[in-house]
């Protein structure tokens, strides 16, 4: 990613639950088609991608159920908050995604929405496979053990 000193880089929304619910096999960066009022709203940090997912339909990649709050100053020229937004990827990447979700039973999960170093909105999408309940329990136990280990190292 970008360095902390980069003034344009800013995380807008993060799907923290994704790494708990899915095994992330790989990820890719996609552009997103937005209207002006959506970008203004994102600058204020009012969005959520926790319940959203990506889908390949008619040879195009779409972000479905992503929430971007209405921008009050836009008035009648605003945007619909939960509309479908087109994601921009190359044809080669789109073919790879189509193959992964079709043949291998994977799903596309949005991980992070952010402004890159040039100030452009990007969405990091993970190609993921769902976890079973036992896998989630194992992940939780591993996370708890790592926290406890850090506490012990700090004390002693």
Summarize the structure.
By secondary structure, the protein is α+β, with helices and mostly antiparallel strands.
Q: Would you mind describing this structure in some detail?
A:
The protein has helices at residues 18-21, 36-43, 91-103, 133-155; strands at residues 10-14, 22-32, 47-48, 53-57, 60-64, 67-68, 85-88, 107-115, 121-130. The strands form two sheets. Strands 1-8-9-2-7-5-4 form a seven-stranded antiparallel β-sheet. A two-stranded antiparallel sheet has the order 3-6. It has four helices and nine strands. Helix content is 31%, strand content 34%. By secondary structure, it is α+β, with helices and mostly antiparallel strands.
**Number of separate helices:** 4
End-to-end C-alpha gap = 34 Å
- Spans of at least 5 consecutive residues with low confidence: none
Percent in strands: 25-35%
Please state the CA-atom Rg, rounded to the nearest Å: 18 Å
Tell me which oligomeric state these chains represent. Answer: single chain
Notable characteristics:
156 residues; 4 helices; 9 strands; 31% helix
Helix-strand blueprint:
Blueprint: E1 10-14, H1 18-21, E2 22-32, H2 36-43, E3 47-48, E4 53-57, E5 60-64, E6 67-68, E7 85-88, H3 91-103, E8 107-115, E9 121-130, H4 133-155
Antiparallel strand pairs: 1-8, 2-7, 2-9, 3-6, 4-5, 5-7, 8-9
